[in-house]
Amino acid sequence: MTSGHLTAFICYRDPDAAVGWITEVLGFDVVREFRDDGGLIHAELRRGDAVVCVQHDDRGYDVPAVKGDCVGSGLYVVVDQDDVTAIHQRADGRGTAVLIPPETTQWGNFRTELLDPEGRQWSIGTYLPGQPGDW
Fold it and tell me: Which parts of the sequence belong to the VOC domain (predicted)?
């Protein structure tokens, strides 16, 4: 067992559409799916060391509204600089809501901020959190 591994899970009303967006825009690969007669109930997606589980939202969870350029929480995917630009272009081409177009922050992160099809925030950037040292 790996100690300290973090995996995100997100419930979507339309999990197939979510998986399509996460794979096509963000470049994740589907590594496992579970379906029943009603469709997709759970999928596991991976990009490098990042893993996201998509589950069917059968309870109608609320998603936070955008305030300014943020919903207050989200997922952060670390990529290289070229990938930030490519992901932004794919997202823009699909009509994805872009909260922040590619920019370099004051702490040196090249990033873009996006909303997935159901309004959850995804931050895509070059900064690797959790490393010791100064900014």
Answer: 2-127
